[in-house]
Design goal:
Blueprint (H helix, E strand, L loop, with lengths): L5 H15 L1 H11 L7 H14 L3 H14 L6 H6 L10 H20 L3 E5 L9 E5 L6 H8 L8 E6 L2 E4 L2 E3 L3 H19 L7 E5 L1 H11 L7 E5 L6 H4 L4 H5 L3 E7 L6 H13 L4 E6 L10 H13 L3
Parallel strand pairs: 2-3, 2-6, 6-7, 7-8, 8-9
Antiparallel strand pairs: 1-3, 4-5
Helix pairs in contact: 1-2, 2-3, 3-4, 4-6, 8-9
Pfam families: ABhydrolase-like_N (PF22316), Abhydrolase_2 (PF02230)
Keywords: Hydrolase
Organism: Bacillus spongiae
Length: 315
Amino acid sequence: MESLTYTKVLNKTLAIYGEGGSLEAYHYISKHADHVEGNKAQLYNFQYSLAAASGLEDEALALFKEATIDHQFWYSYEYLIEDEDLDVLRKYDEFQKLVQLCKEREEAAKKSVKPDLNLIMPQDKETNSLFIALHGDQENREMAEGYWKSIVSKQYMLALPQSSQIEFSEAYNWEDVEQGTGELKNHIDTIMKTNQMNQENTLIGGFSAGAKVALHSLMTEEVKAKGFIFVAPWLPDLDEWEENLHILSENGLKGYVICGDKDEDCLESSEKLVAILKKHNIPHTFKLVKNLDHDYPDDFDQILREAVEFITSPL
């Protein structure tokens, strides 16, 4: 039986919304929101916005209040004043007061947010191997850890960077790829100096927009690595980058690309990236997963082991 995950719940909710409308989608996410691990602020956001879009004004307002008062979450002021789904709530003074509260929290968060990093060491704490894993948009390092942490058992130090580009509570993005690349380089430089490691043996992984930053950092040679593992890579600038991707071949990189055949957002860019890797004779594997949307495969731990073995094995 397929496991239910945070990402699957969000993807399924969006699919139901597109096919059956907001009310059906609201009932679905309300049923499953408390049974998955992920960004609770985002789960609340889906619930109150879908309730509002369905005309359930009292429920929507109560959920928004619960999120912002009980849990101290905040959401983008621009989103709250512009999203059409929330139009029915704007007549309520209480909603307007909570919007202003979110605005204050957003301003404070953006003034104080900094690039962050979590390091997980193998039990013996002695390793010369580094694996870096970048979260996707509207995610955070804790969410990424749940997927990539099995790499530590292969005697890798796992580095989990968190972008400084915050979108709402505990949700970060990589919208500015140059900024993301700079933060990633600084993290790696610090790790290398502190642990006396060889950066050229580093492996780098990323999900969705995290893969975009990882690829950009390799293409611009800001980061040196042995290879990359991308899951559902979101690469909107791939056409512009293509002429520079020969650098991956010149630097001897190997790649492993994973994507679901139902991923409407990233299948096309995954296939395009694979074609470029083939064109430049860059050793690679493309794992196309059946019936998978924009998510990690259920057997990702096993696939990750296979990907590492492929990249680290001699040609």
